[in-house]
Design goal:
Layout: H1 4-15, H2 19-37, E1 44-49, E2 54-64, E3 88-90, H3 91-97, E4 106-111, H4 120-145, E5 151-159, E6 165-169, E7 172-176, E8 192-203, E9 207-213, H5 217-227, H6 229-232, E10 236-244, E11 248-255, H7 262-267, H8 272-280, E12 285-290, H9 295-302, E13 310-313, E14 323-330, H10 334-338, H11 343-352, E15 354-364, E16 370-371, E17 378-383, H12 388-393
Parallel strand pairs: 2-3, 7-9, 11-12, 14-15
Antiparallel strand pairs: 1-2, 2-4, 5-6, 5-8, 6-7, 8-9, 10-11, 13-14, 15-16, 15-17
């Protein structure tokens, strides 16, 4: 035990842990071993003396009144377990040891680890290794929880039968489930790929699980931050984003500086910036929308390239999630508003978090031409269904 401090320092350095965590792991392992080898109902504690490079193990006795009922051996704790009277010492006995002791203080009796039997070292090693591993996992969980929503790079190490892709990122392996893969993408062992950290959790049987995603809107936002310096510097803000992965996406942009064109900056010269992001997303089309704090204006822009006549948002429930909006459009703009396979209106609904009802107004004049009007007209209506479930797929 005389080299214990050097051993602990070495383990902390090799595992990348704080020395305090390694010391705590050893103390907990030593107490667990004492309970196993001596008596699990006794109270033990341990102390590491760095100055003298010693590890101390002792039994703790609480000083109680001479007639304390816990000394009888018939008392129960809060879990209805018998209280071991050997965990206590009377005040009179304690005074014989140290006259300064009072009720509630502790008396410690040193124990020799070497006298616990030949199996004690093996049990201590196993307990210590387990505790150290828990600290390593906790550190990794904390580290990667701070990376949620951020991009990580990794190399594909395995693809299982369910087409889940396993990627090595630093000291851990992450999993890209099939559902988090953009439609049409295929990977092979050795491929390098980018993804965003979606979730970090501990599984009792599998250990640390880091789930990554290429379908999350956060992946689009993180890629834009890599490609557009103004976003990284927070001179351009991505206010909201919505995706149908591999098909189309919409992003709402604002700026903190009046001399910056948010859409032009994100698109880049000849579209070079947005094209680079689109290429990473397997050719996904990306619409840039200028954000507005005026709900009607924002929703109108979200439905671009359609030209909107008017927007009326129900005041009941307000703007945002579960709000409803009636959008009036000329008949020749309906197909643009809806988009191919309904993508445009669904993305606009997801971007603004508003259920949209399209109101088409067609009017014929004397020459037989048509135009939009609030007056005598024939009306056709179309509306989005709730997109909550669709959004949940790609969070």
């Amino acid at each position: 035990m005389d080299k214990i401090i050097d051993i602990l320092d070495s383990i902390a350095y090799e595992k990348g842990l704080k020395i305090e965590d390694v010391e705590q792991a050893l103390k907990e392992a030593l107490i667990k071993t004492a309970e196993k080898m001596v008596d699990p109902t006794l109270n033990f504690d341990a102390h590491i003396d760095r100055e003298n490079k010693k590890l101390e193990l002792f039994q703790k006795l609480e000083v109680v009144e001479n007639d304390d009922e816990r000394l009888s051996g018939n008392s129960l704790d809060e879990y209805n377990n018998l209280i071991n009277p050997e965990n206590f010492i009377t005040i009179d006995e304690a005074k014989d040891i140290d006259s300064d002791l009072e009720i509630g203080d502790s008396v410690n009796y040193d124990l020799e680890f070497e006298n616990m039997g030949r199996n004690a070292a093996t049990i201590l090693h196993n307990n210590f290794e387990y505790k150290v591993q828990r600290f390593i996992e906790e550190n990794l969980v904390a580290k990667y929880k701070n990376k949620i929503g951020k991009i990580v790079n990794g190399s594909v190490t395995r693809i299982d039968r369910a087409e889940n892709t396993f990627i090595e990122i630093g000291e851990v392996k992450a999993i890209l489930p099939r559902k988090n893969r953009i439609k049409g993408e295929t990977f092979r062992v050795g491929d390098n790929l980018k993804a965003v950290v979606k979730a970090v959790k501990i599984d009792k049987s599998l250990g640390l699980i880091i789930e990554i995603s290429r379908t999350s809107p956060k992946f689009l936002e993180a890629l834009l931050a890599l490609e557009v310096p103004e976003i990284k510097d927070e001179r351009i803000i991505v206010e909201a984003s919505a995706r149908i992965p591999g098909s189309r996406a919409k992003i709402a942009l604002s700026t903190t500086e009046a001399n910056i064109d948010p859409i032009g900056s994100v698109v880049g010269v000849k579209g070079v910036r947005i094209s680079s992001v689109s290429k990473e997303l397997n050719g996904e089309s990306i619409d840039c929308v200028e954000y507005s704090t005026v709900p009607e204006m924002f929703l109108s822009r979200a439905l671009s390239p359609a030209i909107i006549t008017s927007v009326v948002i129900e005041k009941e429930g307000g703007y945002g999630r579960n709000a409803k909006a009636t959008v009036t459009i000329p008949s020749d703009q309906k197909s643009k508003a809806i988009g191919k396979s309904g993508l445009n209106i669904r993305l606009a609904s997801m971007l603004t978090k508003t259920d949209i009802e399209l109101k088409e107004i067609e009017v014929k004049n004397a020459l037989g031409s048509t135009f939009a009007s609030d007056e005598t007209s024939s009306e056709n209506q179309e509306k989005t269904t709730d997109t909550t479930d669709l959004e949940a797929l790609f969070k």
